[in-house]
Write a structure and sequence with these properties.
The protein is built from eleven helices and twelve strands. The chain has a single domain, classed as Aldolase class I (TIM Barrel, Alpha-Beta Barrel), CATH 3.20.20. By secondary structure, the protein is of the alpha/beta class. α1 runs parallel beside α2. About 50% of the residues are buried.
Length: about 375
């Protein structure tokens, strides 16, 4: 039985932001900005290709938020200053010209920084060497360095910088909303994670305390932008350097994390898992998207994770997700919505798109 794809093409909204359909492009780091973090014309063409392909929403790759410790990769775009924000204007205009909305993701690398032009070394909640090795397709090599534990003053600076970057995204660059990157092992996720946050002050301890910095960042961004601009947070269990991590507190962690984001005033929660429909903690039970739906009433849910299979996407959109976000499927099929509607064959994901570097390659966005 063919899935009822009309579910995916229903109009919807996130807060007051109307979307033409329920399909989004997930954030994917593509390291194609200038060496000082200014988005390029090539990036504008890349992002506009998704818009012209029929996606109702594009969420950008993460932008670093300050000229201190936040940059993750060389040639990553930023929102740390007005020049970087103005560089994003061409991207926003290109996406808007095709009738699609666009949200800026903002992030801080923490201990996973492997290409910072502003500082040597890394900072993190605690002085714990990250698992795994730096990613070669983002110009990294070898082990991650041991980070320095952040001071209270540095934590306060990060909270403020998230707010400032969010304001630049909306007021200077023209984005329709902002997504705070609280997933995949970067700084905010390092505060959430038990083995990377060994602090004994108010920012460490149980899961509620470890969520403290994320909550304060969320409140700061919300207060900076006001109630009229959509603000979301991306949340995951797995990390780029610890793919199969699970929250040890399981459902209790989900309850605290999602509940605290609701209290902080989120418009949406973007959950990402490798396979988004599977039980969040193995065996039986609810998916992370289903838990977000149940534990965050009144907040939109975006689900990401191997949902390029239309039947999987329809099933999740019919039960637990307001918006379905595609990563690999969108890379190999920037016109995925149009192909789905026209019943055309989809291209399989091409790994060479991310090798030897995960930057933009000309064939990826040729019309």
């Amino acid at each position: 039985m063919e899935p009822d794809i009309s579910t995916l093409f229903q109009q919807t909204s996130i807060s007051s932001l109307p979307l033409a359909n329920r399909l989004a492009v997930a954030p994917m780091t593509r390291v194609t900005a200038t060496s000082n973090g200014v988005p390029t014309e090539k990036m504008a063409r890349y992002y506009s290709r998704f818009a012209r392909g029929g996606f109702g929403l594009v969420i950008t790759e993460g932008s670093f938020i300050d000229d201190a410790w936040s940059q993750t990769y060389a040639y990553q775009p930023g929102l740390a200053n007005s020049g970087q924000a103005e560089g994003w204007q061409q991207v926003v205009a290109a996406v808007h010209s095709a009738g699609t909305k666009v949200i800026a993701q903002i992030q801080h690398a923490g201990a996973l920084s492997q290409g910072n032009a502003y500082r040597n070394g890394t900072i993190a909640p605690s002085a714990v060497r990250p698992k795994g090795e730096q990613m070669k397709f983002y110009r990294g090599e070898g082990q991650y360095p041991v980070p320095r534990e952040m001071s209270d003053e540095e934590i306060a600076d990060v909270i403020e910088s998230f707010g400032s970057a969010a304001l630049r995204a909306v007021n200077n660059a023209g984005f329709d909303g902002v997504e705070i990157h609280g997933a995949n092992g970067y700084l905010l996720d390092q505060f959430i994670t038990d083995y990377t946050n060994l602090r004994t002050d108010r920012w460490g301890g149980d899961i509620a305390a470890r969520m403290g910095v994320v909550v304060e960042v969320t409140k700061r961004v919300r207060a900076t932008l006001g109630d009229g601009v959509p603000v979301g947070v991306r949340i995951s269990q797995g990390k780029v350097n610890d793919f199969f991590h699970k929250w040890p507190e399981r459902e209790q962690a989900a309850e605290v994390i999602f509940g605290s984001l609701v209290d902080a005033g989120m418009s949406y929660i973007h959950v990402t898992e490798y396979e988004a429909w599977k039980p969040a903690f193995g065996g039986a039970g609810m998916s992370l998207a289903a838990l977000a739906r149940r534990l965050a009433p009144g907040v939109s849910v975006i689900a990401n994770g191997s949902l390029h299979d239309a039947a999987r996407a329809v099933d999740l959109a019919s039960t637990d997700a307001d918006v379905i976000a595609l990563g690999r499927g969108a890379l190999s099929n920037p016109d995925w919505p149009q192909k789905l509607r026209g019943n055309h064959a989809m291209e399989p994901f091409a790994p060479e798109m991310l090798t030897p570097l995960a930057d933009l390659k000309q064939y990826e966005f040729v019309a």
